[in-house]
Task: structure prediction
Amino acid sequence: MTSLIELQNITRLYRSDEVETTALHNISLHIKRGEFVAIMGPSGCGKSTLLNILGTIDRPTSGAYLFTDSTGAQQDLARMNEVKLARHRARHLGFIFQSFNLVDDLTIYENIELGLLYRGGVKGGRRAVIEAAMDKVGIAHRARHFPHQLSGGQQQRAAIARAIVGSPDLILADEPTGNLDTENGAQVMQILQTLNQGGATIIMVTHSQSHADQASRQVDILDGQLVASVAQVL
Amino acid sequence: MLKSTFTAFYRSFVRHPLYALLNLLGLSLGIAVFIALSLFYRFETSYESWSPKLPQIYTIGISFHFPGMTDDTGIGSMGGLLEEIKTAYPQTDGTRYWPDSVIVHKGADVFNEQISLVDANFLTFFAVPVLYGDPANALSDPSHVVLSASLARKYFGVTNAVGRTMTLNDPEGLKAYTVSAIIADLPKNTEMKLDILRLITPQRTALHSNWHHWGSVQLATYIKFKSRTEANALAVQFPAFTDRQVGQSFGPDVVPHKLLELKLIPLADAHLVSPKLKAAVISLGVVGIVALALALINYVNLATARAGLRAREVAVRKTLGAAPVVLRLQFIFEAVLTLLLAFVVALSFVELSLPLLNSAGGLSLKLDYHADAIWLLSILAIVMVSGLIAALYPAFALSAFKPAQVLASSRTPGGGRTAGILRTGLAMVQFTAVAVAFVLIMGFMLQIRHIQNADIGFQRSNLMIVNSIRDNAVTQSQRDAFVAGASALPGVSYVTIANAIPGDTSSVNNSNIVRPGQVDSATESPTVNYSIVGPDYFELLGAKMLVGRVFDVQRGEDQMWGDKTTDKDRVYSVVISRRTVKDMGFPSPQAALNQTARFNDHTVRIIGVVEDMRFYNPNEPIPAKLYLFDAHASEAVVGMVRYQGLSAPAMRAKLQHLWRQIAPGVPFDVTSAADNLDKYYKPERDRTHLFTIGAGIAALIGCIGLYGMAAFNTGRRVREIGVRKVLGASAGRVVGLLLRQFLYPVAIASLIAWPLGWLALERWLSQFDDAIAMPLWVFPVASGVALAIALVTVAGVAFGAASTEPGKALRHE
Result:
C-alpha cells in the first residue's frame, strides 16, 4: 500500500487570554492508502481536533502534515493557504459527522450534490454519479425529501453518500454512529466496511470498541498524545 | 454553482417565510418610499424641462430691499423691462410671458380661460412643441392665436384647428381671431399655462400705466444666452443699468439698485427660487434617502442575524471545499436577487399607492416605464449599489465562520461581539430616526393645525369672493346692480367691493407713507401695502377696530381721490393697520389717530386703526396696510359677500343666478375666502402628508427590523431560557430579561432623537411668521411611542420564547 498521510510532530495549542491548552502534543502518524483507521480515546483527549486537522478545517500550531495524492505528488498541508486547502478538501476529502450536518434547506439529492459542487470537473454526468452514491447507501427513494423528513439512520446514510460522491482519497468520520441506535449504527459501519473494501481510505473517530474493532488499525489518544497504534487482524 | 445559489435563495424564501417576508417587506417599503419621493423630487426639480432650450434660458427675478419688506427674490418683472434691456444691449435675445384671463365666446356660451400674452418669438425661443402651423410666424399677426391641443379639442372638437376662428373678449374688446398653430399640451411640471397664446400688442401695453414703472411686476421676462459666462456678463451690468433707468424716481438720495435688485435666474432654478420651498423639497428628498437607508440597515441586520442561523450551512459548505470567495459571491448573488425582487415589489407598491399619494400630497406623479426608463434604471442602480455595499458586511461575516468551531458548537454563532455591537448600533440608528420622525410629525401637525385655526384678524368662513366683478367687460352699473341685488338676497348680511382680497395678491400695490417732518425717501420712510375698499368692507370682514372709526359713505372726506377728481390740497381719510402704526413710529394706535401724512402725493388723515389681517401666506409677515375708501371702486376690484344660514353651494347658486341676470356676457366666477386662503396652507399640508407617510413607513421599517432582531436573538437564547427556567426563573422574569435587552438601545435612541428632533423642528418652524412655541411635550411622547412600539414588537417574541417548556428548550439544536 502506498503512503497517503504522514503527520510529523503535530502540536495544537489553544490560547485564550489567560490559559493555554495543549489539545495535541507531538503526534506523528503514518496512514497508507486503503487503510481503515479508528481513533479512540476518552472525551476531551483530542480525537476530534486530530480529525479536524486531518480534514484541514483546523491547523496545527506546529508540525508537518504531508499528503500524497493519487499521482504521487506530496504536499505539506500545514503550510497551505486557505484557498488551496478549500480546493484540497473539495478534491480529496469526504466528511461524515456525528450530527450528520445536512443543510436543512436542501433536499437529500441537493445535499449530496454539494459534495460535487465545489469540486469542479464533473458536469454532464453529475446526476448519474449522485444516483450511484445514493444507491450505494440505499437512500435513492428519499432523494426529494428534506433532511428533517428522514430518520437519523437515513440522514447519516445521506451524509455518507455526500462524503463519497466525489470519490475522495480519504473519508473522515467523526463518531458516525454516535447519534444512532444499534441497528442503524451497524448499518452505517457495514457501509463504511464496504467502502473500505472497495479501496477507500477511512479515518474514524469513535467511542465504540466494537466499531473500532472493525477497522484495520486502532490509534489510541490520551491527553493529546498518541499512546498506541495497533494494526488489527480482521 | 449558479443553480445551487438559486436553489438556496428560493428555499430560504419558501422555508423561512417569516424571515423572507420581513426582509422583503422592509426592503420593498424602503425602496418604494425612495422611488416615490425621488419621483416627487424629480418632478419639483425638473420644471420647464419640456423646453430643449432650458439650459440656455434665464428669467428675470427681483429682490426688493424696501424697509419693512422681505428680501425674498420673486420671479417676474415690469412689462417694459425687456424693451429697456434691448435698447441698452441690442444683442439681447429675450421673450415675455404674461398670463391673463380672457372670455371665450362659443355660440351663446361664454367661458373663462387663461390667455398667455407673449412676444412673437415665444414659440421658437422655447422651442415649444408645435403640432400644426409655423412656429416662426404663428404669433406675429395680432389677429392670430395659438392653441394647445386640448383647448383646440375643447372648442373645435379636433386637434388640428389651424385656420378656424374663435371669439375672445379681453381689454382690447370683443374680436374674432384666427388659429395659426396648435402646440402640444405641456407636462404638469411647468409654471406656464399655455392654453391660448397671443401677441403682446402696443394697444394692450398702452392700457397699463405701470408698463415702464420700475418696481411694478406684471409678467415674466426670459433671456437666452449662449453660455453662463455671457449671462454673468449681463448680470454684472444690472446695478448700473438699474441706476441709469430709474434715475431719481425713487427719491433724491437713493441708489436704485440697492432697493431694487435685478437678478438673472437660470430657468431650471426658477420654480424653487424660494429658499423655503427648496428646503421643503430637499427635506422630502432626504426622507426618501433615510427610508432607503433604514431599509438597508434592516437588510444588514436581518442578514447578519440570519447569518448566524446559516453558520452550520456555511461550515458544511466550507468543509466540502467551498473557498471563502465562492461563499461571498454566493451571498452577494443572493443579495442581488433579493434587491431585484424587492425593487419589483417596491414598484408595485408605488403603482398601488400613487393615486393615494397624489391625492394626499396634491401631486400628479406617475411612473412611465417607457419615458422614464433611464431614470428608473438609475434609481435601480442607486438601490443596487447601496444595497450591495450593505450586503458586503453580511457576506464577509458569513464567509469568515470557522467550520471546526461552528460544527463543534451546539449554539448558533451570533457573529461575535463586533456583529452584536454593529446590530445594536444599527438598531439604535433606526430608532433614532423613527423617534425624530415622530417628533417632526407631531410638530408639523400642531403647526398646520395652528395656522389653520389661528385668529387671522377676520372671519374666513361664510365669505364668498365674486371674481367676475373684476372682469374688464363688467360696467360700473353692473357692479352697482350686483351689490344691490346681492345685498337683497336672503341670508346675506354684507356685500362690498374692494381690491384687498383674502388669498389674492393680483392687485397688491406698495407705496411710501411719510409723516410730517420726515424725508420722503424710499429707503427711510416705511412702505405700506395699500388697497381700495368700498362701503361696509371692515364690517363685512369682522375686522377688529382698535381705535377710531371705519369709512362712512356719508362723509365726503372719506372718498379717495380719483383720476379726474384729485385735489392736492384736500385731506383724505385712511384707515391703517396695527403694523403700519408700528412702522410709522407711533407709540400706540391711539397716538396715530387723526395724524396726517403724505401718501402718493396726497395728504391723508388716519381716521381709524384696525387689527392686522392675514390675507396671504402664513409663512410671511403680515404687511403694513393702508386702506383708501372708494364708494364706487372699479380698479381690479372683486365683490365680497358675507352670508349666514345657508350652505356655500346654495349661496353660490343664488349668486350665480343673480349674476346671469346682470352680466350674462361674463362668465360667473366665485370662490370662497376659505378656499382662496387654502392655497397657502395646502402646499404645507400636502408636504406634511407626504412627510407623514414617508416617516410613518420609515417607522414601520424600523419596527420590522426590530422584530427580526428580536426573533433572531431570542431564537439564539432558547437554551439559555431553558436553563434559567430549570433554575426557577418565572416566565415573567424571562420576558423582562428579553425586553430589557431591546429596550435599552431603543430608550437611548429615543433620547438621542431629542436634540436632533429639536433642531429639525426649530428650523422648520422658523419659516413661519406665526409659529407655535416649541411643543416640549412631543419629545417624551415621541420617545414613549417609539418605546411602546418596540415593546409591543418585542413582547410577542419574548412571550413565545418564555412560555416554551424548559425540557423542549434544552433539547433545542
The helical segments of chain A are 47-54, 82-92, 108-117, 126-137, 152-164, 182-197, 209-212.
